[in-house]
Amino acid sequence: MTPVTGLDLTGFTEREPGVWTDAAGLVLSVHFFPLVPDLPAPLHEPERLRAGLAQITAEAGGGLIETLPGAVDGVPAVRQLVKVPLGSRPGQAFLGSWTIPKAACSTVVKVQAAEGPMTGMREATVMAQVGPAAYFRPHPYVGGQLGGLPFHVGDDEQWDARFPDHPLTLVRAALRRITPTVTFDDRFKGLPPFGGPVPQAPQQPQPQPQAKRGWFRRKGA
What we know:
Layout: E1 4-6, E2 13-16, E3 19-21, E4 27-33, H1 46-59, E5 63-72, E6 75-85, E7 92-101, E8 106-114, H2 121-130, H3 132-135, H4 167-178, E9 183-184, H5 186-189
């Protein structure tokens, strides 16, 4: 159960409640978390938010490709594009998401796809064209190097048209198409906004998650 009441699922087939897949291997999912969002900064501090998300992603072994504050159905949100190693085999998975935070909960709309058996073709082609010296760059959100997967120009959107079947291209395109179709329950839209992370006092018992609200499922589900 999530606050999402509308979502264009053209081309997707439901696999389980809140999870859909398509013929290209994309996985679309919606989530509701009845907890204070774990974003490192409020949306009105985009530089601190970007830097914090880049660091968190790197510490988890991935790489933040880009992030952008915006809105979904008129509700303030933050978009992220992330890459992570597959772990079980060579290659990467790419995740595009909107996090719609409120003061005590959040909704996430996520699209993801993984590389197949052939990996690294996009990266090798772009590196050959721009040269190794221009390929890898300091992460723009921190002005330096991070751990995790490296930041490089091969992930730039300008290369998507040349690699139409690459999972990053597919994730970007799907998220762009789906975002304008997302609508939320008015009760979620009316909740107090997210003001930033709230540090927990040491040695205080952690609050238990509140029971999930009876949000309406997507219309037609």
